[in-house]
Amino acid sequence: MKKLFLLLPLALALSCVKEVDEQAPAVKDEGDQPGMITSAGSYDQTLVPGKAKILFSDEIVAEIESYDGEGIPVTKSSPLGSVLTDLGIVSMERLFPYAGEFEPRTRRDGLHKWYLVTFDEDIPVTKAGDDLSSIEGVEVFEPVRKIVTNSFRPNDSYWSYMWNLSGITSDYSIDVVPVWEKYTMGDPKVIVAVVDGGIQLDHPDLAWNCLSSGHYNYVSNNDIIEADDHGTHVSGTVAAVTNNGKGIAGVAGGNYGAGSRGVSLLSLQVFKGNSQANSFEAAIKAGADKGAVISQNSWGYNFDRNGDGNLDASELADLKSAHNNPRSAFTAAVDYFIKNAGCDNDGVQLPNSPMKGGVVIFSAGNENCPYGPPGNYEPCISVGAIAKDGSRSDFSNYGDWVDICAPGGDDDESSYTNWILSSVKGGEYAFMSGTSQAAPHVSGVAALLVSYFGGPGFTADKLKEALLGGARQIGASTGAKPIGPLVDADKSFFYLLTDKPDPVTDYTVTASRNSIILKFRSTGAFGYMAAASSSRSALEQMDPRDPGSDIITADYEIVGEDFSEEEIVIPLKRLELSTEYFVTVYSYGYGRTFVDPAPIKSATTSGENKAPVININPEIGEFKQYMNVSLPMEIYDPDYDELEVLFTSTNPQAKLEQNSRGEWYFNLNCQRSSTGSFTAKITATDELGARTEKEFGFKVVKNNPPVLDVPVENVILASVGAKVSINFAEHFSDVDGETLSFSIPKVVDEIGEEVLSTTLEGSVLKLEAKALGLCTISVKAEDVMKEKVTQDFRVLVRAESENVSLDPGTVVTDHLTILAGIQEQETEISLVSNYGVKILNLKGSYSAFNPVTIDTSTLARGIYYLTVSFGGNSYKYSIVKR
Amino acid sequence: MRRLATIVFALTVSIAAFAQEVAPANEAHPFLRWSRDPALSGLAGAGMTLPGISPAFAAFSNPAAIPMMEGLGAVKASYGYYSPSMVGSSNIAVGAAFKPAKRFGLAVGYAHQFGYDKIDGFGPHDFIIGGSLAFGAGDHFSMGANFRYSRSMLMKNLSVAVFSTDIMAQIRFGGFTGAVGVRSVGKPLDKDDKSKIPSSAAASFSYHYVTGIHSIDAALDGDFYFTKNWGVAAGFSYGVKDIAFVRVGYRYASERAAVPSHLAVGVGGKYKGMTLDVSYITLNKIIGNSFQLAFGYSF
Q: Which residue of B has its CA nearest to A775?
């Protein structure tokens, strides 16, 4: 246990300082760095002022340890008291903190008697040493000597120009060096998709971190990347090889000197000079499909129509409109990346993926305006730019929609070294400025975070939270033109490292032969650690980060989805038989930040071995051929022994498989199976040889094709613009209960052109009349086994008042189609010339959906009279043959 | 409430292909063969050689009759209402024949057909304008030719024009008159229009008998169209004192002949060169109830 003793009030300390000044006047140059005054009257720059390590006698230590509160443990009457007072002692704490289970040996070796004493920095260390050494009970006085820090300084030749990373000449770097020193410089399993101009893949400062394949050129639609200055520049900021003795350092470029590669760069080229890809959206989406979890985008839409470099009112209005109305293809691509990066088709994090989901990082734009399409789309991380002095770059777009800012330089060409130095094509380097340069800083820090914290269960939401939560407020963050907080790598790491979940407060304990099982509700932690010991005190004193050999622990890490409502079961196995154990459970966050343990409980293991349990899922029986069966099976050992499970079946497609959580499933791919009756047997054997067998049968029955229960009726739409929906699920069914998929293989305009618009949503076909005419629509219903049934039906679009429709109307050339009535009925059709010459007389069963077509190609030009009679009514039309 | 959509019960789920029918080829401009003179249409179109019927409308029928007409000339104007139950169109016609010399005759004629149902706001109509030249050789033989331009205005920007001619030769001995020739020989002026017009080889025979105040005329006309249609008409006329006449005729024709089968009746009057004739058509569903009337003057 760590104790901190606060000693004298500050007022007393100040009086002591004055006293020292009078006794030993020192020459102190206010301009010098603070240091120690040596006995010769000068400061010893090698000592830490106001600090000393003291070895006390047993008596003094006993006196200190007997004090159980805060304040002064010794008085002026004690041997130590007056000196402590004279020196202005501020605090005193054990040099070797309380060691828990190892405290006995710590004390045995006398390390508990060493204290770190803090006193007034103006008191010369040598004087303090002299005074304290003369006191009885002070056995050793040692000043604290300054440590020569081995702060990481990469050997890249242009490092001194990289204020944006190093902070050497600016207070507004991204503070990445401490992260390199303490945590990581990148991991090649993290892929950053650079949606930009092409990266020079063989650039001496990039090649080490570029993927060997997978790059794609969306301008030329091939896989040949053509190097571009802009794409190569932003990529250098993300992951130029660091510490390789040349060029620049990237934020997440690895450590060449140590042989560790940085994050991997994937070039998705979307522009080349003045040419650009047709679909930037496809490139964003492809990033997720190619394994990237970070999409780096330093581009925006160009609204400078006249190319004068400024936006006039009209151009600005267009920019604003685009800002407020993100294009749906773009948003779909971004949403896809965020949702699917690092995951399989079912949205489950891939085994080797460092993160579930992705982040899309965008530059805010350089128009010095409050709009920034497309990067302002809310799910993106929009990045503004700051200059070297921490002010908003004059060009940077701004607004509450800007999430974060990063170094991007200014627009002063006369001092270009204040811009961002990075790689460009041709193996060269150049300074550039812009929000394009700011965004890759954020991508690089994101990549570092994923490199260190990534793994199962690490989510894009958590990454975004850490990036924004760890960013620090600067002047440019707020005000009339805010651009968000400055990205801060070290603080973002600290944000995740100090992420502490709620502790477990209640749990149940059950014991078996040699196991104890803890069950409790999840508290939303990243993971849990159960601990057991036969010694309660050992358990009480355990350090969860280093439990020690006499503590038995078991971890349970949440993987994938939100398990906040799940019951967590942690077995502690291989315990001694018939022994009482004390148990507890810790919850922890990212970086194994433990919180207080749950209350200690106890349980006693038994000595009786129980046979494994096999419970056959009662749903196993008859399966349809379309089914892909996966049914949980209860197979466990009551004693939590490891089980050897054997499965045999007369159906080769039947399998018994265990998932990553240890749960057993009976899996059967009926679609690949033959039909018939089958048997299967499960044998489970525990470590002591106890065995349980269960045999069961199941059937796979033949698939039945879908059926048309109620024919889809012909439809009349009574005007252009009329709509109707047809739910095919009401017409087709499948006796096997399969979900049918519907499709419209063809829509044929029998009469008219583009008569209908059709939209099929699931089983519902939505029709809208676009023109007068007659369509034949084919609908296909298909089951899982690809067996299908089809039906054709017709849709007639005609004016509501019409009982007869004519195609092509009353002026004909080579044909005249007559759509009479609705229902089929006896119909007489007469065609005579206007001079009384009988041309044609037809009688038959016709309707609008079973029309008759007259070939009029041989008719002489002229006027004819058509009479259509049915249902007791006659309809007469004048027809022109042209 | 406006009904936007109607779901129709289908009697069958199978979708049949459309029933296909072919309209037979027919002849353009059949009105070229219509009689504009009720004195002839009362005989079902027979009798274009009858001496008692003035050749004022010779430009539409038999130009060879002009040299054999009595007097110097004749004029006539007619009105008809055609096919009231089906077509319902009207026609007017004017014609004049003149014999400036004993063996030489001229005629002109104009006919206009109108009153069809309007199509897209346009009233279709037809017209014919024609002229005749005829020569006589002695008292028993004559021949003549008609030249006609006809045009059907079908729509505002769609019309069909035809040029056609008739050539007829006629003989007369006593009460017997016979004529043969070709009628309506020509074609549409639009070279893209492949339609055929009702051209035919024609023959007409008549006999005029007078006894006391009574007169009887019998006529038989036949047309054999180049399109393999045909028509034969027979007519009889009874007159009293050459003042009043009753007429009846029947035409029997192939189904798509330019002038279909029908029964016709008519009456006429003549006084001091002036004539009034009326005809009525029946026994045909399409053109039944058509009628014509005409005023004429011979000098």
A: B15
